[in-house]
Amino acid sequence: MRRFLRYNYCMHGLTLILSSIIFVLLAIIVFLCAFIALRVKRDKKIKQAFELSNRDYLTGLSNKIEFERVVSGVIEHQKHDEIGALVLVEIDSLKSDFTVIALANTLISSFRIADLKSRCDKNVFAVFMRNVFDVDSVAKKVSDLQSAIKSQNIKSVAGICWCKGPQIENTFVDIYYCASTALLTAKEAGNDSFAIVGK
To answer: Over the chain (199 residues), what is each successive 10-residue block's mean pLDDT?
Structure first.
């Protein structure tokens, strides 16, 4: 009888120990799951914050810093016979946030999905077109864009810089400067005009 009681007592002790171990293991698993869930949530928020910091808050287009980073990567990997074009469009005046959003939507719908689009400044939008057939096709796109902008009673000028890459002088800064020069030429010609400069 004593042996039986001692055996039961030992089994009860082992059951308690095993239950405690299982409880601790379950607690560790729950803690790890909660930790992983919080980490995933935090990483998602960091990614969202990073994406927001690279985008214009109003239009969702890339800001100038992100645009420069992406376009620089594209220029670096251009084939020797590939033609690229940077288009800068400056708007005369933006009356409201609604106007900015409408213009961004017009810009998006006027160019190819693969073309990189940006709001570089308050009144300046940019598009980088890669692998274009010729300068005339770019000019046609810009002309159509300006017609769409004009239909919204907004005045604009545009500068286009086209380049064959890759070349040493074809960095983003060089091409942006080239497009800015074309933009100044277009301003001298008057509203709703554009100018093209080649590199």
So the answer is: 54 68 79 78 61 77 90 79 84 80 89 91 89 82 88 85 65 87 87 79
Exposure pattern of 25-42 as b/e (b: 16+ CB <10 Å)? eeeeeeeeeeeeeeeeee
DSSP three-state, residue 155? coil
For residue 93, what are the contacts with CB-CB under 8 A and spacing of at least 6?
123, 154, 155
Across the chain, how many H-helices and E-strands are there?
5, 5
Nearest to 88 by CA among 173, 154, 178: 178
**Cβ proximity of 106 and 145 under 8 Å:** yes
Q: What is the pTM of this model?
A: 0.69
